[in-house]
């Protein structure tokens, strides 16, 4: 009877917890992670002082993931190669000698066994074979290291061959990212660019709060616009409206800035304050949020610019 009461109590508790979660008001703020960061869409952005915690890659994107998690570690240039079986043929021969000697010794027919030597001779042969094996293995393992040392380098973890030893004065990293011809090149972010990003932050928030589709199309990429339109349409269907006003940038810094062919990308960590509320479309009654006190938000916004055109919003990630 007590067991049944405990089961009923557990079921009642779980039901109450679910009811509380369903009844709890959702955050009025636009959420999610969507858009495109070019070839870095499915990579986690670099942490910054404004967004010090690790931010997951973009979750909703039309950009194909060319390096899925399955098997990506094996294809990564930083992945450690599987340890080679040192010794090769030599190790196989030594193993054969050891096995043959030990079996022969235990049967009384080992290396140089003497009639009547018995178990004492077997132990002696085991010790001799073990010492010989240890010496040969050390000799075979030592040769590649010595060869690399005489060639003036150390063994490269990428190719397995020798590579030059960096001088003490050389910088640990030449650039923050790999540089290849016409792709993934770091680009400078000027003061005019930062001013443009701040203007875009306020303009996009304002246009979203006013449900200004035409203005959003001017400020964002078609992909981001499609996600905004989807959310605005869902709010309208539910008889709600997300009003965002008074957006003010508090802090910002550049997480990444790079070029892919003729297209520039910049991922900016931003912390800003705004009045963000959800209201009833018919009555204007506030459903969620605080209409008097601004709330702070930290997000990473990625902007894109092609062939010297203006910057547009191409991705948003919650920090």
Quick gist of this model?
The protein is an alpha+beta fold. It has helices at 2-23, 72-75, 89-106, 118-150, 191-210, 213-219, 222-237; strands at residues 34-35, 153-155, 162-164, 183-186, 240-260, 263-280, 286-288, 295-306, 312-318.
Overview of the molecule:
Strand 6 and strand 7 form a beta hairpin. This protein is about 40% helix and about 25% strand. It is elongated, with a radius of gyration of 33 Å. The longest helix has about 35 residues. Among the domains are: about 70 residues; about 130 residues, Nuclear Transport Factor 2, Chain: A, CATH 3.10.450.240. Strands 1, 4, 5, 6, 7, 8 and 9 form a 7-stranded antiparallel sheet that branches. A two-stranded antiparallel sheet has the order 2-3. The protein is built from 7 helices and 9 strands. The protein is of the alpha+beta class. The two termini are about 50 Å apart. Helix 3 packs antiparallel against helix 4 and helix 5 packs antiparallel against helix 6.
Classification by helices and strands = alpha+beta
How much beta, percentage-wise? 15-25%
Considering DSSP H and I runs of 4 or more, what fraction of the residues is helical? 25-40%
Instruction: Tell me, briefly, the overall form.
Output: elongated
Please report the number of helical segments.
Answer: 7
CATH topology category name of the domain at 185-318: Nuclear Transport Factor 2, Chain: A
Number of strands: 9
Instruction: State mean pLDDT (0 to 100 scale).
Output: 72
CA gyration radius, whole angstroms: 33 Å
Low-confidence segments: 11-28, 70-100, 110-117, 140-184
Main pleated-sheet profile: 7 strands, antiparallel
Which sequence of SSEs, written as H and E, runs from N to C? HEHHHEEEHHHEEEEE
**Corresponding CATH architecture of the domain at 185-318:** Roll
Classified by CATH, the class of the domain at 185-318 is Alpha Beta
The end-to-end distance, rounded to whole angstroms, is 50 Å
């Amino acid at each position: 009877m007590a067991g049944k009461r405990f089961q009923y109590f557990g079921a009642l508790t779980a039901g109450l917890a679910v009811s509380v979660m369903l009844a709890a008001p959702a955050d009025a703020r636009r959420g999610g992670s969507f858009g495109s960061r070019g070839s870095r869409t499915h990579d986690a952005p670099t942490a910054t002082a404004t967004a010090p915690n690790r931010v997951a890659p973009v979750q909703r994107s039309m950009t194909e993931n060319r390096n899925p998690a399955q098997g990506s570690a094996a294809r990564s240039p930083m992945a450690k190669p599987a340890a080679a079986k040192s010794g090769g043929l030599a190790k196989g021969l030594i193993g054969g000698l050891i096995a043959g000697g030990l079996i022969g010794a235990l049967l009384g027919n080992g290396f140089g066994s003497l009639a009547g030597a018995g178990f004492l001779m077997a132990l002696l042969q085991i010790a001799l074979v073990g010492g010989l094996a240890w010496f040969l293995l050390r000799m075979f393992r030592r040769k590649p290291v010595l060869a690399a040392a005489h060639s003036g380098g150390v063994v490269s973890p990428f190719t397995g061959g020798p590579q030059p030893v960096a001088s003490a004065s050389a910088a640990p990293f030449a650039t923050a990212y790999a540089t290849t011809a016409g792709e993934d090149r770091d680009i400078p972010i000027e003061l005019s660019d930062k001013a443009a990003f701040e203007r875009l932050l306020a303009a996009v928030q304002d246009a979203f709060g006013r449900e200004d589709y035409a203005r959003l199309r001017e400020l964002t990429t078609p992909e981001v616009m499609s996600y905004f339109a989807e959310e605005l349409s869902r709010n309208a269907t539910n008889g709600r409206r997300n009003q965002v006003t008074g957006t003010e940038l508090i802090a910002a810094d550049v997480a990444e800035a790079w070029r892919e062919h003729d297209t520039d990308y910049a991922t900016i960590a931003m912390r800003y304050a705004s009045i963000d509320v959800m209201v009833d479309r018919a009555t204007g009654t506030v459903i969620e949020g605080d209409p008097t006190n601004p709330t702070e938000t930290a997000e990473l916004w990625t902007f894109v610019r092609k062939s010297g055109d203006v910057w547009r919003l191409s991705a948003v990630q919650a920090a």
